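user: Here is a favour to ask of a fellow structure person. I have my own habits and do not want them to colour yours. Could you put it straight underneath, so I can go through it closely?

assistant:
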Amino acid sequence: MRKIIFFSLSLLIGLILFFIAFKKIGAENIISAVSAISLWQFLFVFGIMLLSFLIGTLRWRIIIKTQSSAPVSFLDVLIARTVGFAINYLTPVIFAGGQPFKAYIIKERTKASLDKIIISIIISEAIFLSILFFFVVLGVFFLFLSFDLPFIFEIIISGIIFFCFIIFCLFYSRIIKRTPDKKGFFTFFIEFLRLDRVGLINGVKTKIADIEREIFYFFKHQKIQLIIVSFLTLIEILLLILTYWLTILFLGSILNFKELISVNALINLVYFIPIPAALGSFEWSQALIFDIFGLNLNTGIAFSLIVRCLSLIMAGLGILLLIHFEVKTLAERLGKIVQKFMKCFE
């Protein structure tokens, strides 16, 4: 019940911010700015975004293959990742909401162990977020260095950066440099927060420790795969940044490297705000940063709408795949029940 209330409240706040942005700038001005990009330009940008997504899929498949001997096809991983993206995008916690769905789909479509799938997800997200964090910090540095931002804006961004930095430091110090007498990242937080007093968590504490050992083994001993996966992650993020640059270019504006990296940083930071799809907050953030760059506010809103549209297409595909997967799984289970029922009369 609390989750439903939280989701509804955050969605309402997002809708209010979204409509305020539209009212302030004007629907006609926004439509005029969006119409500057042609259909083929939109499809071209979407193609690059899709390529970035496919490279990210390949990254995760490579990690899965290091963890599980069960055959997992690229299509299996692509379907799971598309569904995960949809859930991530449409829920308040964009980097976490879809992970259980990804694990569930891979588990149902293959014979891979659930523990191995969870390990692959943790490794994949840790590498992706680490490299993304570097670009975010670089973008924030350029933003603070080049522009006089509102004080409250600087405080919020600095707080998010500091929090993420602490988490990454704890993760790598307790996972990569793990020793037998030192608690792992997740075990440390379980005991620090006294979560082991909860019966369910205490029951899986040993399994969590086993997962931490597998993660440690990957970072410590599978250096070639780590380098390949890190390189693919870098290409994935650079292609995504390229989609932002091209979208802005097609809208009639040009950003230099510092400005582009700053835009990318703000896009990723705004998704930490617990609002589904960063509705409203995304539009306002881009309007603000485009104003800081001395560009048209209409262009900032138009840019945010096009990026949102690209993401919604991917999210829509993910939802359709999830519905198809659930219907197919339900039909298979009903078929097995019917078969068992018919055997009773044979």
Q: What stands out?
A: The CA atoms of residues 112 and 153 lie 45 Å apart. The chain has a mean pLDDT of 75. Residues 2-343 form one domain.
